[in-house]
Amino acid sequence: MSDTIRGGGAAPLQSYDEAVEWINGLIPFGIRPGLERIEQLMSMLGDPQRHLKFVHIAGTNGKGSTCAFLTSVLLKCGYDVGTFTSPYITRFTNRFQFNGTDIPDDTLVLLANRLYPLVKEIAASDLGSPTMFEVSTALAILYYATVTFPDVVVWETGLGGRMDVTNIVSPIVSVITNVGFDHTDILGDTLEQIAGEKAGIIKPGVPVVSCVSQPEAIQVIRETAAMQGATLYLAGEQFTYERLNGDETGQTFSFAGPFRHMEIGITLLGEHQCANAAGALMTLEVLRQYMAFVLDDAELLEGFREAAWAGRLEQVSSSPQIVIDGAHNPEGAQTLAKSLPQLYSYRKMVLMMGMLSNKHHEAYLQHILPLVDTLILTEPDFRRKMNAAELAHLVEKLRPSYAKTDLKIIVEGDWKKALRLLQSHTEAEDLGVVSGTLYLIADVRATLMYQTDSEKGW
């Protein structure tokens, strides 16, 4: 099958590199909200998504960590689990995992060749070419429905929810982690509009779990759930959680839900991870209570403790002490600014950051600037990067109101040189932090952890 495709011709994609190059070659078609192309693609394949059980996860922040908690616990409890996430930190295959392991390169090539003629066919129609994310989503469905057959697929949205490609599926539970300002150019610039897009994953009669906290966003989710006849489990109402203690090695929180009370220990850092873990636990409780999932307490606790997620408050160097965090929107920055002083002791903070050109950077900087002693502004290795000098101009504008009086600003567009500057400026008692777009985080992480096969990408 690897040598032929539909119609009996030779497979056009002969290697992993060729397959990834073809899929990434669809990036110029951009982000095109809408389900017409993915519906057509799935129809041509016989709608394989209908044979799978999905837990569908949307939200502004915390989706990846929630996926990590769910995957870890379900695996520990003996289930076969598919996990589809984005962006990826190291390699393109990271986004398609089965039982915690990336899709094999040769399987990816096989499935890409199966999709190739169908994508060409749709591209020649009035629908236009499927995008990179549409093809990746189709490949994930094929992998799970025709190769690995997991018991459940942990299924992360790409962007929004309602018109996101992943919304082709009918899940057994929907999860909305939180709502904040991100991708406002596509999702809208009010919390109600953004919440409306996220709430688009709520399906008729399918339970929904959420840790959304803003009253206006809660109202949208509550109304959508009611309209769909979907039972809503909302943090602060149907379940509650409280952080009990924590340090740089982990933290503990208490959980009180409709079915039982528990104490949970996690190693992911930051108070916000207690919210993500509580949402994941409520989701697991729904699976246990209503869908006959067998989740032994000891294994559940172990699964939470062992859950890990790269690039989120992750210490990647001890001498000098450097932490990376993919905070790239205002809510992420607020969480990071709160977490760093709680978790680390330091004399001075040296922050290196790089951003894309389509974000709310002013609000981001307002949260993070008050902590920073030396700020190194750089540029990610990505086509939509924000110019470092432009970012510096924004910092100067905010400086009088938000920055320390002696804040030192360094502008270095080359991220590799910027990283060397971060290392040289971070002394023994200091804390170095790299934050901003995950495109930058991926490169920095690969460099500091000596990963030679890093590809990174959305």
UniProtKB/TrEMBL annotation:
Enzyme Commission no: 6.3.2.17
Domain Mur ligase central: 57-283
Keyword Cell membrane: no
GO terms of molecular function: ATP binding; dihydrofolate synthase activity; metal ion binding; tetrahydrofolylpolyglutamate synthase activity
Taxonomy, superkingdom: Bacteria
Listed cofactors: Mg(2+)
Pfam assignment, any one: Mur_ligase_C
Keyword Nucleotidyltransferase: no
Keyword annotations of the record: ATP-binding, Ligase, Magnesium, Metal-binding, Nucleotide-binding
Major enzyme class: ligase
Residue ranges of every copy of the Mur ligase C-terminal domain listed in the record: 311-437
Catalytic activity: (6S)-5,6,7,8-tetrahydrofolyl-(gamma-L-Glu)(n) + L-glutamate + ATP = (6S)-5,6,7,8-tetrahydrofolyl-(gamma-L-Glu)(n+1) + ADP + phosphate + H(+)
A Gene Ontology term for the protein's cellular component: cytoplasm
SUPFAM superfamilies, sorted: MurD-like peptide ligases, catalytic domain, MurD-like peptide ligases, peptide-binding domain
Family, per entry: Belongs to the folylpolyglutamate synthase family.
Protein name stated in the entry: tetrahydrofolate synthase
